[in-house]
Amino acid sequence: MQVLLLGGHGKIALHLTPLLLNRAWNVTSVVRNPDHENEILALGKGRKGNVSVLISSLDDVKSASDAQKILDSVTPDYVIWSAGAGGKGGPARTIAIDQEAAKHFMTASFASPSVSKFLMVSYIGSRKKQPHWMPDDQWAAIVRTNTEVLPTYAKAKMEADEYMTALAAKRKQNPTAATHPFQAINLRPGFLTDEPATRKVELGITPKGRGNVTREDVAIVADLLLARADTEGWIDLVNGEEDVEAAVERVAKAKIDAVEGEDVDGMVKRFFP
After folding, report:
1. Which of 143, 184, 134 is nearest to 160 (CA)?
2. Pairing of strands 26-31, 117-121
3. d(Cα 107, Cα 126) in Å, to the nearest integer?
4. Which backbone phi and psi does 202 adopt, to 5 degrees?
5. pLDDT digits over 122-164, tens only?
6. Which H or E run contains 167?
């Protein structure tokens, strides 16, 4: 398998790359800064798959055709969005990267005959309605983050997530979807930390709207989700007590989707009137 990893020098991506390579998958890691190339190439030493680096700035992705050019140069089977402005460049750049560039890559990926999986790394609070499983105090913390702490980031992520959900729903309405299955996976971690992986999680839906999760555990979950043919939808993630492999198995088999309670039909109508 050929994997296109956008945001390849991010902390989650650096944990994820060796896991993908250990599956004998090839990874093309997209980074903006050429100084990061050697660090990423070193992740491929002793692995089953091959890693390459594509120097390209997501700031330059202004349309789906711009994203398509990158897809054409790599011809990936799977696309992973682990990129973001990271607060650099102000609100305008956050919207340009986390929202618009992400949407352009989704548009191109969903339309590409080679791509069969798109995994978005989002965040647990990217939703408009309080889910029935989340206590009031946890939801209040999310609302405060979305409206007071990181309003531009929250807006950008929510727009990208809803667009991805609408694309996936619209695709399932297409009669040809059965001949070309597509997994749209929205992985939604809580507050990210840099501690070593615990391999213990709460996955799928969780009442912990402000729970923590290590970046390494996020990478482990992403790798496991991509390795299966039965994972899709919104998958919330914080550290917990369940073994990570068992958690992924449970979520996949039960088809747990944290989009529950959100207006998916409204998303489709908004983006595809």
Report:
1. 184
2. unpaired
3. 20
4. -110, 120
5. 999 999 999 999 999 999 999 999 999 999 999 999 999 999 9
6. helix 151-172
DSSP state of 197: P
The residue range of the domain holding 241 is: 2-271
Contacts 24+ apart (CB under 8 A), 173-180: 180/113, 180/116
Mean pLDDT estimate for the chain = 96
Helix (H) or strand (E) run with residue 266 in it: helix 264-271
What's the pLDDT score for residue 174?
83
Closest Cα to residue 119, out of 35, 25, 198, 52?
25
pLDDT of residue 178: 65
Report how far residue 12's alpha carbon sits from residue 121's, in angstroms, rounded to the nearest whole number: 9
Output the six-digit token pair for 207: 């009442």
CA 211 to chain centre: 18
Confidence bin at 196 (pLDDT 50/70/90): very high
- Report whether 201 contacts 124 (CB < 8 A): no
Amino acid type, 231:
T
Condensed to tens digits (0 to 9), the pLDDT of residues 214-256 reads 999 999 999 999 999 999 999 999 999 999 999 999 999 999 9
**Residue written as token pair 């682990």:** 82
CA gap 252, 146 in Å, rounded: 29
Phi, psi at 169, each rounded to 5°: -65, -40
Number of domains forming the structure of the chain: 1
Q: Supply the pTM of this predicted model.
A: 0.97
Q: What is the CATH number of the domain that holds 116?
A: 3.40.50.720
H-helix segments, 75-150: 90-94, 102-111, 136-144
**What is d(CA 107, CA 165) in angstroms, rounded to the nearest whole number?**
12
